[in-house]
Amino acid sequence: MSVENHVDHWGTSPGDPVAAALAGMETALGDLLSMDPEYWRTSQKKDVLARLQQLKAQQAALELRVLATAGDIAEETGDKDASAWMRADLLVDKGPARAQLKLAASVSKHELLAGGCADGVVSHDKARVIAKALDAVETNPVASAEDLLLAEKLLVDYATHLTANELRIVGKRILVEIDPVRFEDAEAKALLAEEERAQQKTALRIWDNHDGTIGFDGVLPVAMGMRFKTHVEAWAQPRKQQLVEKGTPLPPWERLMGQGFARLLETIDPDALPRHGGDATTINVVISLDDLRKELGTAVLGFDDANGMTISATEARKMACNATIIPWVLGSDGQVLDAGRSSRFFQPVQRKALRLRQKCCQADGCDMPPEWCDAHHLTAWSLGGKTDLKDGVLLCPHHHRLAHAPGFTHERLPDGTIRFTRRP
Q1: How many Cα atoms occupy the beta-carbon half-sphere of 55 within 13 Å?
Q2: How many angstroms separate the CA atoms of 230 and 225, rounded?
Q3: Residue 383: what pLDDT?
Q4: CA-to-CA distance for 11 and 219, rounded, in angstroms?
Q5: What is the DSSP letter of 10?
Q6: Gap between the Cα atoms of 35 and 21, Å rounded
Q7: How far apart are CA 165 and CA 159, in angstroms?
Q8: Average pLDDT score over residue span 209-233
Q9: 189, 196 in Cβ contact below 8 A?
Q10: Which intervals hold domain HNH nuclease (predicted)?
């Protein structure tokens, strides 16, 4: 059916059917938006959400179908594709626009996929997953045209009862499902090649944000990345559980994960690390005698400002409880007054003894379990405190920071708990 304006034998035009159909959609949507779902029945809300899901898939199918035939738009604007027009008129960035055009071209090649989209059973996200899987099948030297057709049929069928992520997993192994004998060895070889490429892509970048934080990002192979994720989550989950039990609003999960990662680093045993720069892996802290003695002071992680980073004396004293550091105490004219001893963790047997005596964080009113607490020196290690049981107390990370914070004082109560008070 032509969608051009029709002129009948009386010389009149009944109108553009495309514009009329769009106007009907806009009117219906406007009618729904004028209603307040607050007053809808639960069954109505469920019905609307389910039907909108299908309508969104059909709307995406229509968009992809139009984009697949948008070569004339590019010709009209003198561009190689319609992405320039989409950027100028629709305000869609060129990257996403070209991704849409690529998906439209891919979907248009596969009749069953295009039909599933038009029927509303294959969403936009699922269409992208299926198209990528079919492209991989198409370029597989072992796969035939029949394999490609069967893979398309299976994936469209799976799309009716799987999420996009579940479909992605199935799509990677669709050929093995079609014919295990032919494709299992090929899959194993492909996985080995993928893992080798992943090793080559492994990277880590670290930089100073100059605002008291360090930024980093990186890429890890899947196996190592999942180990990393699991380790960090192991430290993040107890914090989440404790907040839930107390009825405290949860911070963003990203913050909990960041705090979990920080705790993971704090609990690494320096003795288990490889040697670094010809010496055991330690952190050197340079601090003046005056800054060591006063509560508000600064120290340098490293040997000098050019090759290190400035931190508060409070943080340096806190680190002494949980990391192997060597403090270099300087006089007023820069001479080394003391190259202190390397601080030591409370040994495992000491921590076990502390756990037996102290069933949770010893801050007054805190019930953080002992396995998530730090062993803190009641007499600061930087001031001569010793790593022994009578000088040790378990504090959760929050109260451990308060113990070193200049804005708070703390005292040990008769029952052994620690009470914190903000300075006036």
Answers
A1: 9
A2: 9
A3: 59
A4: 67
A5: T
A6: 22
A7: 10
A8: 84
A9: no
A10: 349-401
